């Protein structure tokens, strides 16, 4: 399968946020996001929507990697457990396909800052 190598080969929105695709192959993806002022909420922390976007994009890349990198799925639902706030630094999100069916897929993701777990997620994607 083709591995996505280009930084910013995500959506225009992903590029706006600063998401970096490190790896996307064989039902797994690894993305990076560096905290910057444009991602802060009113409390000065990483906005939950930015964190969700990192997770959703990583899951999408993991899903698409089962289709040789071509977009073929959309998020049906996603549940995120936000575990700890982020004020600075870099995050990594690892997403993987738990079940890759013909009509639906189940995915999971973990977001870390170094060794600290920041968030966990599970989602269902519809295969088109």
UniProtKB/TrEMBL annotation:
Q: What superkingdom does the record give?
A: Bacteria
* Residues in Thioesterase domain copies: 43-115
Q: Name one GO molecular function term.
A: acyl-CoA hydrolase activity
Ordered alphabetically, the record's keywords are:
Hydrolase
SUPFAM superfamilies in the record: Thioesterase/thiol ester dehydrase-isomerase
From the UniProt record, list the coiled-coil ranges: none
Instruction: List the Gene3D superfamilies hit by this protein, alphabetically.
Output: Hotdog Thioesterase
What Pfam families does its record include? Answer: 4HBT
The protein here is known as Acyl-CoA thioesterase
Naturally occurring in which organism (per UniProt): Stutzerimonas xanthomarina DSM 18231
Organism lineage:
Bacteria, Pseudomonadati, Pseudomonadota, Gammaproteobacteria, Pseudomonadales
């Amino acid at each position: 399968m083709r591995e996505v190598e280009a930084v910013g080969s995500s959506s225009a929105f992903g590029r706006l946020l600063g998401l970096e695709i490190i790896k996307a192959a064989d039902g797994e993806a690894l993305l990076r996001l560096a905290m910057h002022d444009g991602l802060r909420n009113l409390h000065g922390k990483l906005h939950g929507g930015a964190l969700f976007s990192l997770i959703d994009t990583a899951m999408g890349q993991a899903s698409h990697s089962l289709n040789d990198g071509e977009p073929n799925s959309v998020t049906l639902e996603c549940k995120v457990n936000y575990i700890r706030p982020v004020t600075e630094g870099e995050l990594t999100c690892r997403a993987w396909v738990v079940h890759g069916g013909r009509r639906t897929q189940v995915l999971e993701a973990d977001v870390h800052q170094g060794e600290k777990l920041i968030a966990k997620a599970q989602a269902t994607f519809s295969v088109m």
